[in-house]
Amino acid sequence: MPREFSRTLRVGEQIRRELADLLRTEIKDPGMGMVTVGDVEVSKDLSHARVYFTVLGDAQVAAASGKALSRASGFLRRELGRRMRLRVVPALHFVFDDSELKGARVDALIEEAMRSDRARGQED
Hints:
Elements: H1 7-25, E1 35-42, E2 48-55, H2 59-71, H3 73-84, E3 91-96, H4 99-123
Parallel strand pairs: 2-3
Antiparallel strand pairs: 1-2
Helix pairs in contact: 1-3
């Protein structure tokens, strides 16, 4: 019977939880906004982890937060090694996740289209 979750998924989820706690309690960089870790994708050999994050704010806050996270990646990687006791701690690559912004834009476009259809229906 195959395993329900692969090791990379389990390690990625554990990294996500630990990073969220580290960002909340340990990182005091003023350049970093309110960061939320959305997902972590770990490579099969556990050498790299792509960390998707979102921030509360605009594109400038996101860029500043991305730079702050990159600066703190060495510290975060060391702390992950202490907390998780992995033989190889993945290199952390931070990626801004703009899917929420795109989703809000699509919702606004749909709402606008529905309003124009209603207006056109009332004219006829």
